[in-house]
Structures are given as structure tokens and as C-alpha cells.
Design a protein that fits this description.
The complex is a heterodimer of chains A (415) and B (267). With 415 residues, chain A is an alpha/beta fold. Chain A has 15 helices and nine strands. Chain A folds into two domains: 214 residues, Periplasmic binding protein-like II (D-Maltodextrin-Binding Protein, domain 2); 140 residues, D-Maltodextrin-Binding Protein, domain 2, CATH 3.40.190. In chain A, strands 1, 2, 3, 4, 5, 6, 7, 8 and 9 form a nine-stranded mixed beta sheet that branches. Chain A is globular. The two termini of chain A are 40 Å apart. Helices cover 73% and strands 1% of the residues of chain B. The chains are: A alpha/beta (415), B mainly alpha (267).
């Protein structure tokens, strides 16, 4: 074993570089995001006053008032070039910049540079540490917080579209959408992919270090095993944790029944004394030895194996959560054409496969399958059989009173 | 004054107003039915463990910061000589690096295969790694490290202002070194100690970064609860109410402590 964590190694510089390279440093953005949100909240009344005053002079640009995305694209390109001739152009001229808001290390290593080279568009890639921060920031001004494109979870699409935070896509600008597998042409969360294009899908299961946990893990019960007290981790995500407890109890994920949620809460309360951490960095906490076994996302396990090649992952037998994320164009996008080009580019079979091969998440892109590495395709934990796949459940977006049911119990648990 | 209005009072006022509102069906903040319901919710007994934890961490951080900071400030003031400014700059030096980076450095030192455990294992003190990280120990260590400069500076100012003649006079009257310290130096530098305590305790109560990064499942703090309400819970009114209440309790507690101290010292 090359990765003996009992071997004394005190090369601080090497360690620091390693940590910076991991996801951990993106925590910095959390602070920046909160600072930004705070400032936005403080200035919101002033901004609102200004925009109301200006509204009478300029045509309404509220997302609800925009009939089609094509119109908004045309309007955008017209503003970009005020002297343009009145006759319509079939493909609008792309802008010079593109502001993307995404997870760290979430696209292939060369995806950004290839895109920049191909289209001559400068990509500004900003990162968020967790989905809550992402939502808080893109909703801060109700139209995307200044970004053009972001990658939310599929379950966020409907509320974002309803609230006008994202704009309908001009599918004519995304010819590569034909590459999507048939399952993904008309997904239930966004029929016809009108507002979003699916990007990756994954599962939430259990990752463990076989050097420390010398048994085969198959059930969620493993995360309640007292033998590993102080070495267990759960994801710092309320819906995922309640779903995991639910699987143990035979309660369906996404329940909003108070009695069922209380049962889940009790289950989690039993578990809490055994835990080292509710982690938002499962990769770092696992590879640096704090966690021997943890609730983890399948793609994070792939990254864990870069440090601990023997690390294992399982989709527990009781069932598990499947998630997928999407690419969306924000309603306040200043570079909507470039954003559409980015989506189209990432649907290219080779680009999509390069993204998947880098991060270890399978994508919905049927044309890309032939370029995806054999390791990934043949791995039943990353690319499960149809039977296992069909038993996976997606989390739904909780809002209002339903969300409060989870949050109040989660704060009680973690308080 | 404008600065104070724009960057302190305005955000505070917004939080105060929002705290009486609620979320409508689509999750937007509305002031349609203003009321105290958020404050009622925020006093749930379930939050007590996190609140008490925060108080405990902040008190210990304050005690350690002053306990460690006082001798340092005293030494710089009395024995720093012409290097005083340089020594003070050294105290401030950590601020040149982002607090987050420095906290990550502590993670590298404290984690199970980190620097501290590697050394302990190399010299044979322990076989299995000692879990430093994600414990009360790591949280208090991290917070004390972070807030120490805030304690040293007011202590230094207060000690430096102390007239050396008074110490001499005490010694002339046959007081022991310890006696002079207890009856002359300590009472006269009490304002510095109080300032250091305030500058450490209040921000420590609101610090969620250190407990979040260096803490674990058993080290909950009330600041983290507020953060969860704002982000995962998307319930700004509730979070605002809890945050506002926390602020009032912290300030009230601090003022009460100050008054008691003042009566003890001067009255």
C-alpha cells in the first residue's frame, strides 16, 4: 500500500499544496458569497428604486414579460451593437465574455481552454462551495447575481423558472441536444428540456477505507456501527441525511409526513454521538484520515481514490438517492449567446466524455458513451445495472412549510 | 458618520425589519403579516445546547486570549525597548494572511495524518493517531489563535500607559513584585483587560468559520444554526430573528458584566 497514513510526513509545503488542490479551498467563496449577499440585501431597496424609475424609459425586461428566449437574445445582440442593421440575423453574434458559476473542478481539465480557443470567448469561471450558497447568490437579485450560466440540481429547475431566475433556452442554438439519450430528451423535472440541459448524474451512498473497515459494506446500517465511533461521517446536507435515515427505516425519501420525519430525526439523533463530523468536504476528511467510512457522493469517491486507491463505495441495498444537475442560462445574463454556445459545446460527444472521465460522474449524453473510459463504464457503482438504477430515487425541491419541517429538525439535530 | 449609517445601521435595520416578516408560498420574504412568530420560534429549547456551547467556547477563548496575551503585552511594553513597534508588527503579522488560509493550516497540523500526529507517532508517543481535529480542543485552540491579537493590542495600550513611577513607588514602599502587580498594575490596566475581553468575546460568539472548519458533529454553535437557517433553510426572517436575539443577548450580557466589574473595581 502506497498510502500509509501512519508514515510520518511533515512536509508542510507539500501538504498545503495538496489541500489547496482539493476542494477545501473553495470554502473561501462561501465567505465571499455571504459578503456579497449581505451587500446586495443592503442595497436592494436602492437598486429597486432606481430600476423602477428607469422602467418607464426602457422596454420592460422582466423575465415574465419576455415572450421567447429568441426575442431576448435578439434584444441582447441589438443592445450589444446599436448600429446593427434591422434585418434579423439567423445566429446572433456571441459576446466576448462568459460568466459561469459552478462547482470547483467540475468540468474536464481542457474544456474551458478548448472553448475559449474555439469561440474566442473569455470564460470567467467562479466557484461555489455548496448548493445553498449557489441558490442564495443567484436569487439575491432574482435574476442570477450577475452570472450568465450556472449548474443547479435538476430539482431546482422548476422553482427557478417559475421565479424568473432562469430564462427559457433557445434550443435552435443547441443542435448537440440531439446527443442526449432518449431517457433524457423529456425529463420529468423539465419537460422537453425547455429551461435546462442535463449534465451529470450520480448516486449518494457510502464510501469506506478497507484498510480500517475490514468488512463488506452493503447497508445503510453501516453508518450506525458503533465499532467505528468517531470515525464516521455524514454529509452536511439535511435532505440527504433524512433520506439516508429513511432508507434504514423503510421510509420513502422526500417524505413530508411529520411522524415519519420524527422517526428519521430519532434515527439521526442515535447516530450523532458516533459521528466525527457532518462534513461538507467528504473527500478531504476521508483522505486525511478523520473518516474511515462516510456518506458520500459517487463522484467524490472517484476523487478519493486518487489519494486512497483502495477506497470503496457502495449503493446500499435498501436503495439510494440519484441526483442530476443541469446547465441553465440565468435571466439576467449579459452574454446569453455565449452561454448557449457553452451548453452546446459541452453536449459535444468528446467534450462531454472528457468531463465525465475527469470527474467520474456519468452523463446523460448517449453519443459520448463511446469515448467514456472503460473503468467508468464497467464500474457497477458508477454505472449501475438497470435494476439498481431504476430503484434509485431523486430528491425533490422542498419549499415553504415542507422545507421548514426539514430545517427545524435539522437545526434541532445539529444544535 | 455616513460610513456608520451605510455599513452598520442600514444592514442592522434590514435584519431587524426582516425578522418580523415571513416567507410566502414561493419562499420570498414578505412583510404581509408582521409579528413576533420568528422570535417565539427562536427561543426553542432545542437551541440551548448550541447556545451554551457558543458561550462556553467564547468564555474559554476570552480567558485564554487574555491569559496568554497579558504576559506578551506586558513583556513588549516593559522590555521591548526600541523594538516595541517591530514586536507589535509581529503580533499583527498573521493578519497578512487570510484567516481562512491560517485555519486550513491548523487543519493540516491537527488532522489524523497531519503534522502533529506524524511527529507524535515518529517519536513513539502514540501508535494510533490522536483525534485532535473536530473536537472542543481544536475549536478553542483555533479561536484563541484567531482572537489573540485582538486581546494583545488593547492590553498593550493599557499597560504601556501605566506610569512606571507608580510601580517604583510601590516597590519603595516595600511591596513584593507580586504585591505591586496585584495592587498597582492589575487595577490600573483593568480597562485594557475589559476592552480585550469585549473585543474577544463578542466576535467569538458570532464566529462560525472556526467551529465549522475545526469542529465536528459534537461541537455545534449557535452561529452555525443561524447560518443553516439562512442557507439550507432559506428562511431569512427566522434566521434574522435568531441572529438579532443573539446580538441583544450578547450585548446585554456584556453590559451587565461590565457594570458588575465597574462596581467591583471603582465603587
Amino acid at each position: 500500500m502506497t498510502n500509509d497514513d501512519r508514515r510520518p510526513s511533515i512536509d508542510i509545503e507539500r501538504e498545503l499544496v495538496r489541500v489547496m488542490a482539493e476542494r477545501r479551498i473553495t470554502r473561501r467563496q462561501l465567505l465571499e458569497a455571504i459578503a456579497a449577499v449581505g451587500a446586495t440585501a443592503a442595497l436592494a431597496p436602492i437598486v429597486a428604486a432606481c430600476s423602477t424609475a428607469g422602467a418607464s424609459a426602457t422596454p420592460a425586461t422582466t423575465p415574465g414579460a419576455t415572450p421567447t428566449a429568441a426575442a431576448s437574445l435578439a434584444a441582447a445582440s441589438a443592445t450589444a451593437a446599436p448600429t446593427a442593421t434591422p434585418e434579423p440575423t439567423p445566429v446572433p453574434t456571441p459576446e466576448k465574455d462568459l460568466f459561469i458559476y459552478n462547482w470547483d473542478a467540475y468540468i474536464g481539465e481542457n474544456t474551458q481552454s478548448q472553448f475559449e480557443k474555439k469561440y474566442g470567448i473569455k470564460v470567467h469561471y467562479e466557484k461555489f462551495p455548496d448548493a445553498s450558497t449557489q441558490m442564495t447568490k443567484i436569487r439575491s437579485d432574482g435574476k442570477g447575481g450577475g452570472y450568465d450560466l450556472t449548474y443547479p440540481a435538476s430539482t431546482d429547475v422548476a422553482p427557478l423558472a417559475r421565479d424568473g431566475v432562469i430564462q427559457p433556452l433557445s434550443l435552435s442554438l443547441i443542435p448537440n441536444i440531439k446527443n442526449l439519450g432518449t431517457d433524457w430528451q423529456n425529463p420529468p423535472y423539465d419537460p422537453g428540456n425547455k429551461n435546462s440541459v442535463p449534465n451529470y448524474w450520480w448516486t449518494t451512498g457510502i464510501a469506506w477505507d478497507p484498510a480500517k473497515v475490514k468488512e463488506d459494506v452493503t447497508s445503510w446500517a453501516a453508518l450506525w456501527n458503533e465499532k467505528y465511533t468517531g470515525k464516521l461521517g455524514m454529509l452536511d446536507d439535511q435532505q440527504e441525511c433524512f433520506a439516508a435515515a429513511g432508507f434504514r427505516l423503510g421510509i420513502k425519501p422526500n417524505t413530508t409526513d411529520d411522524a415519519e420525519l420524527d422517526k428519521c430525526l430519532n434515527m439521526l439523533k442515535q447516530q450523532k454521538p458516533l459521528l466525527r463530523k457532518y462534513t461538507s468536504d467528504d473527500i478531504g476528511d476521508f483522505t486525511s484520515g478523520q473518516l474511515w467510512m462516510t456518506h458520500a457522493w459517487s463522484g467524490d469517491w472517484v476523487q478519493m481514490t486518487y489519494d486512497k486507491p483502495d477506497a470503496k463505495y457502495v449503493i446500499p441495498s435498501e436503495g439510494a438517492i440519484r441526483g442530476n444537475d443541469v446547465m441553465v442560462v440565468l435571466s439576467g445574463a449579459k452574454n446569453p449567446v455565449a452561454a448557449h454556445l457553452w451548453i452546446d459545446f459541452n453536449l459535444d460527444a468528446k467534450v462531454s466524455a472528457a468531463n465525465s472521465n475527469y470527474i467520474g460522474y456519468m452523463g446523460p449524453n448517449a453519443a459520448a458513451q463511446q469515448y467514456i473510459s472503460k473503468d467508468l463504464l464497467d464500474n457497477p457503482q458508477l454505472n449501475p445495472d438497470k435494476g439498481v438504477y431504476d430503484a434509485l430515487t431523486e430528491l425533490v425541491t422542498l419549499e415553504g412549510a415542507d422545507l421548514d419541517k426539514y430545517t427545524s429538525r435539522w437545526t434541532e439535530l445539529t444544535s | 458618520m455616513v460610513w456608520l449609517l451605510g455599513f452598520f445601521l442600514a444592514p442592522l435595520l434590514i435584519i431587524f425589519v426582516v425578522s418580523f416578516g415571513s416567507n410566502d408560498a414561493t419562499g420570498h420574504i414578505t412583510l404581509a403579516n408582521p409579528g413576533l412568530q420568528n422570535y417565539v420560534e427562536a427561543t426553542k429549547p432545542e437551541f440551548l445546547p448550541a447556545f451554551l456551547n457558543s458561550v462556553r467556547y467564547s468564555l474559554l477563548t476570552t480567558v485564554f486570549s487574555i491569559g496568554i496575551g497579558y504576559p506578551i503585552a506586558y513583556w513588549i511594553s516593559r522590555h521591548g525597548g526600541r523594538h516595541k513597534v517591530l514586536l507589535l508588527i509581529l503580533v499583527m503579522l498573521p493578519f497578512w494572511t487570510s484567516y481562512l488560509i491560517r485555519t486550513y493550516a491548523w487543519m493540516i497540523i491537527l488532522r489524523d495524518n497531519g503534522v502533529a500526529n506524524s511527529i507524535l507517532q515518529a517519536v513513539g508517543i502514540t501508535d494510533e493517531p490522536i483525534p485532535f481535529l473536530n473536537t472542543d480542543f481544536s475549536v478553542i485552540l483555533g479561536m484563541t489563535y484567531g482572537f489573540l491579537p485582538f486581546a494583545i493590542l488593547p492590553l498593550f495600550v493599557s499597560i504601556d500607559r501605566l506610569d512606571d513611577a507608580l510601580v517604583q513607588a510601590g516597590r519603595d514602599l516595600y511591596a513584593s513584585g507580586r504585591g505591586v502587580f496585584m495592587h498597582v498594575v492589575l487595577p490600573l490596566t483593568m480597562p485594557g483587560i475589559v476592552a480585550a475581553a469585549i473585543l474577544t468575546f463578542i466576535p467569538a460568539m458570532g464566529d462560525y468559520v472556526t467551529p465549522d472548519l475545526l469542529g465536528g458533529a459534537q461541537t455545534s454553535t449557535i452561529a452555525k444554526v443561524v447560518q443553516v437557517l439562512f442557507t439550507s433553510g432559506r428562511d431569512w426572517p427566522y434566521g434574522s430573528a435568531l441572529g438579532f436575539m443573539l446580538m441583544v443577548i450578547t450585548l446585554a450580557g456584556t453590559f451587565l458584566a461590565l457594570r458588575a466589574l465597574r462596581q467591583e473595581t471603582f465603587g
